[in-house]
Amino acid sequence: MRAPDCGRKKCAMTLDGDHSAQSIPGNGSKTGSEAHLRRVLTLPLVVLYGLGVTIGAGIYVLTAGTAARAGVHAPFAFVLAALVMAPSAGSFAELAGRFPVSAGEAAYVREGFRSNLLSLLVGLMVVVAGSVSAATVSVGSAGYIREFILLPNIVLIPTIVIAIGAVAAWGILESVTFAAILTLTEIGGLLLIIGGGFVSDPEILLRLPEVIPPFDDASAWIGVGSAGLLAFFAFIGFEDLVNVAEEVKRPERTMPRAIFLTLIVSTLAYMLVVSIGVLLVRPEELGASEAPLSLVFERTTGLSPTAITLIAIVATLNGAIINMIMASRVIYGLSRQGNLPAALGRVNRITRTPLIGTTLVVAIILLLAIAFPLDFLAETTSRITLSVFALVNLALLRLKFTGRASDPGQFTVPTWVPVAGFLSCLALLSSDLLS
Length: 435
Fold this sequence. Notes:
mainly alpha; Amino acid/polyamine transporter I; 14 helices; disordered N terminus
C-alpha cells in the first residue's frame, strides 16, 4: 500500500498504521547521527500529564468567568462542555492508537483527507491553540501570584513564561515528571476545597439540583451557553496527550486509556468544585475574583487561603508548562513531516527536546499573554480547538467510510461517535455565535 504524499520528507506513518524505526522517531534509536525523542512515558505519567493541563488550565482559572456568565448554573456549563467533549475523546482515542505520532491532529487530518495543506493548517491551529492556552494560564497564574507579590503583569508574566520555558526545554521525562508532581499537588488542593465545602454545609449534595437551569428560563440557558465556551476550555487537555505519543511506551494501548481517564477524572472534579463554589459563595462575588478558589476555600473553611493560593499557582504554572511542551511537539512533528523548516524538527543531543521549536513557542506565548485579557484568550482557544476537533472527527469518519480499518486489537469506536463529535462541536460554536 502506497504512502501518502508528505512532501520532501518521509511520512511518519503508512496508511495502514504500521510504524517502523525509520519512519517514527522516538523509539530510542538513531538514524545516522540524528537524535530522536525517547519512548519513556508510562500510563500513570501520561494521565497525570493530561490532568495537569486540564485541571490547571480550567478549574483554577475559569471558575470566576463561568460564574460571572451563568451564575449558580455555572456547574451545568461544565456538564455541557463534557458532553461536547466525550464523542471527540472517543475519536481521538481511536486515532491515537492508529497513528501514535507527534503533531497528531495534523497527521489524522492528512490521513483522512489526503491533504498536506489541510494537515499543515490544522497543525498550525493546534500550535496557536496551545500557545493561547498557555498564555491564558500564565495570566491566571499572575492573578494568584499577586496575592503575595504586588508586581505589574508586564513584570510577572514574562518571568513566568521564561521560567516555564526553561522547564519545558529541560527534557521530556524530567519535565513531565516535574509536571506530574505539580499535578498531584493541585489535585490535593481540590480535595481540600471539596472537603471544606462538605464540612461547611454537610447537606450540599441535596442542593445540587439548584445548578440545573429551569427549562423555561431562556436567559439562564443563554448564560449557560455563553459560559459553556469558557467551560469547554477547562476540558482542553486530553487532545494534548496525542502530541507526546512518540514519547509514550506502547501508545496503541496507553493513549486510549489515558484519554478517557483524563476526561472522567476532570469532569468529576469540576462538578464538585464549581458546585461548592457557586452554592456557598455568591456567584457575583465569585465572578469578580482574580483568585476564585482561594475565595471559596476561605469562605467555606474560615481558614487562611494562603495554602490554596500557593497550590493554585502551582496548578496554573503546570498547565502552562504542559501546553508549552505540547505546542513545541506539534511544531517538531510538522517539521518532521516536511511541512515546516527542518530546523524546527531538530532534537538537541543533550536535552533530547526540540529546543528551537520550544523557543519559538515561548516567544509566541509571551506576546499573547502580555497583549490580551484572560477571557478573550480562553474563548479564542476554545473556538480554535472546537474547529480542530470537528476536522479530526470528520477525518476519522472518512477513514471508516473508505474502508481503511484499524489493526486487529486496536481500540475502535462505532461510526456514530465521530458523527456525534462533529455535530456537538458545531452546536457549541453555534451557541457562541448566538450568545
